[in-house]
Specification:
Length: 101
Amino acid sequence: MAYIQGQVRIARESKGLTQADLGSRIGQPQSAVSRIERGGDLRVSTLLEMARVLEMEPMLIPKHLVPAVQALVGHATDRVPALEVNIPLVGGVPEDAEDSE
């Protein structure tokens, strides 16, 4: 779960929003955003609201498809070299996923 919360912080910062800005847009105090970004409990409803504001799409990806999704995301960012695009995968690589190397 800490990966998701870290990605929220990265997305917030890339949009130039402060914790207070994000909090006001989702109806939460700055302290709640800070707590979430530090790894505190995160309700699904709050995650969905944060994703909406940050223009992200939370998804559940089957573990065996994570490498393919990461490759597609990497390929998509390679096609836009003029932009510094950071497309985080919400959820990231599962801790128990097998290494393909």
